[in-house]
Amino acid sequence: MTDPVTLDGQGPIGEFDEKRAEAAVRELLIAVGEDPDREGLRETPGRVARAYKEIFAGLHQEPEDVLTTTFDLGHDEMVLVKDIEVFSTCEHHLVPFRGVAHVGYIPATSGKITGLSKLARLVDVYARRPQVQERLTTQIAESLMEILEPRGVVVVVECEHMCMSMRGIRKPGAKTLTSAVRGQLRDPATRAEAMSLIMAG
Ligand SMILES: Nc1nc2c(ncn2[C@@H]2O[C@H](COP(=O)(O)OP(=O)(O)OP(=O)(O)O)[C@@H](O)[C@H]2O)c(=O)[nH]1
Ligand SMILES: [Zn+2]
């Protein structure tokens, strides 16, 4: 079988193929010992295909698609949006990991500011892909640096991975924290200020 989809870790090559996803789910049901033609499962491959289309929609989006609204407010101090809900999918086991992201930046003195909701949209662009948490974190930080050209960026992601909760090591409640800090936010005092804002309840 030819495989038209190849990934470079940065984004997609290829379209979402709903028919192929549906056939694959049907195969998977057979593989686990189920009957995909029984009443309750008949519509499942189609449903799962549509769900995957949504869950992996970020493969077909670029950060530039969401960081559209930029304006100059003359604000050149830190802007931080905390507790942005994250739903992503572990690329090792294809089960969810979920939690929150905190995204902050220091705009350039004469630089671009974006709408607050756009930071949450940016999180979704990268979360809605097969992911590892470290890459999710750095992709958010690096795309912000590239597009807004701020003086600094801080991204902290805290998630629980279902692949550690419901299977394998089975440690529900364990949280993984990852951070990516760029530009002036690497300065110890500024970094400490950002981290204390993030960690404050
Ligand atoms: N660094 C990192 N590891 C992850 C992430 N999501 C899942 N993992 C880990 O990926 C690893 C895959 O390990 P393997 O030994 O190949 O797979 P496995 O046999 O299913 O491993 P177990 O989960 O330990 O049962 C596991 O240790 C997972 O906990 C992530 O976002 N970042
Ligand atoms: Zn996993």
Automatic annotation (TrEMBL):
Top-rank EC class of the record's enzyme: hydrolase
Catalytic activity: GTP + H2O = 7,8-dihydroneopterin 3'-triphosphate + formate + H(+)
Nucleotide-binding listed as a keyword: yes
Keyword line: GTP-binding, Hydrolase, Metal-binding, Nucleotide-binding, One-carbon metabolism, Zinc
Annotated residues for binding of Zn(2+): C90, H93, C163
Name of the protein: GTP cyclohydrolase 1
Domain GTP cyclohydrolase I: 22-198
Pathway: Cofactor biosynthesis; 7,8-dihydroneopterin triphosphate biosynthesis; 7,8-dihydroneopterin triphosphate from GTP: step 1/1
Pfam families assigned: GTP_cyclohydroI
PANTHER family noted in UniProt: GTP CYCLOHYDROLASE 1 (PTHR11109:SF7), GTP CYCLOHYDROLASE I (PTHR11109)
Stretches of the chain forming a coiled coil according to its record: none
Keyword Hydrolase recorded: yes
Entry's EC annotation: 3.5.4.16
Database matches in HAMAP family: FolE
Family: Belongs to the GTP cyclohydrolase I family.
Subunit description: Homopolymer.
Matches recorded under InterPro entries: GTP-CH-I_C/QueF, GTP-CH-I_N, GTP_CycHdrlase_I, GTP_CycHdrlase_I_CS, GTP_CycHdrlase_I_dom
